[in-house]
Structure formats: structure tokens, C-alpha cells
Specification:
Elements lengths: L1 H4 L15 H25 L6 E7 L5 E7 L6 E3 L5 E3 L2 E2 L2 E2 L9 E4 L4 H13 L4 H15 L4
């Protein structure tokens, strides 16, 4: 017991960091846009883009271990029949509308796409897409809720 008397004992409770849901959605969107930019730059350079992430799997002995596995990333841009490149953002499984009935940005060429994505990142940081992100997340939440 003499060892415990040398320590300062107290009653304490850890405080959970309050995470602002709007800030969290901004950070999530910025991370997704950064991946899209890396993918576009790799495509422009003619290289393969293979992002990875950590997954937990059971090994042969049945012990859970962390393994690096390839991550599936959906390409955010597409081309139309004339060869123009367009970029669209998806959040919570839904395409984001930038304005009424406008869900894509015309980039023209693939080489311009990284600049377009940088502009989108700045718009997300400035909070210009907060309403769209919040609405998409709310709609996703309603879809996942079990009926009563």
C-alpha cells in the first residue's frame, strides 16, 4: 500500500472530442477530392493509380491481423460523345447538385481536371457545398433507417 500513497489519486472521466458534423463532412469530401486528383494526375501521366487501405482479416491461425489491401475508388469524371470531360461529385451515395439540375462540371480536357478539383476543394473549405452535403447525408440516413 505504500506504493499507492506515493501517487496522486483522483476521480476523472475522459472527455469526448465534440466533432462538428459539418466539419466532418467537409473533411471527408476534401479527402475524396484529393483521391480524385491523384487518380486524374496518374491518368494524365499514363501511370496506374492503386490506392490502398488497412483492413483487418483473420490469418491461417485465426488471429486478426491488419493487412494493406487495394482500395476501390470510383472515377469521378466521364466523357461524353464529343470527347468533353465532365466531373461529378458523389457524397453518401448520391450525386451532388451544384445548382438546380446541374450535377456536373465541364472540364473540357483531362489535363484541366486537377485545377477543377483544386477549385472544388477551396469551395468545400469555404462552406459553399455544406447544404448539399448535409442534404445528401440526411437522405442517406433516412434510407438506412429501419421502418418502425
Amino acid at each position: 500500500m505504500s506504493h499507492l500513497k506515493a501517487l496522486t489519486l483522483t476521480s476523472a472521466v475522459p472527455v469526448r472530442a465534440a466533432v462538428d458534423p459539418v466539419q466532418r463532412s467537409r473533411e471527408k469530401m476534401i479527402a475524396a477530392l484529393a483521391e480524385q486528383k491523384q487518380m486524374a494526375e496518374a491518368k494524365i501521366a499514363g501511370q496506374a493509380f492503386t490506392p490502398t487501405h488497412i483492413v483487418r482479416k483473420k490469418n491461417a491461425e485465426g488471429v486478426r491481423v491488419e493487412v494493406e489491401a487495394p482500395k476501390r475508388v470510383r472515377q469521378g469524371w466521364f466523357t461524353d460523345g464529343n470527347g468533353k470531360v465532365f466531373f461529378a461529385i458523389r457524397y453518401a451515395g448520391k450525386p451532388i447538385e451544384f445548382a438546380k439540375d446541374k450535377n456536373a462540371i465541364e472540364a473540357g480536357e483531362l489535363s484541366v481536371l486537377p485545377k477543377v478539383i483544386d477549385t472544388l476543394v477551396e469551395a468545400v473549405r469555404a462552406g459553399e457545398l455544406d447544404a448539399q452535403l448535409t442534404a445528401a447525408a440526411a437522405e442517406r440516413g433516412q434510407m438506412l433507417r429501419k421502418p418502425k
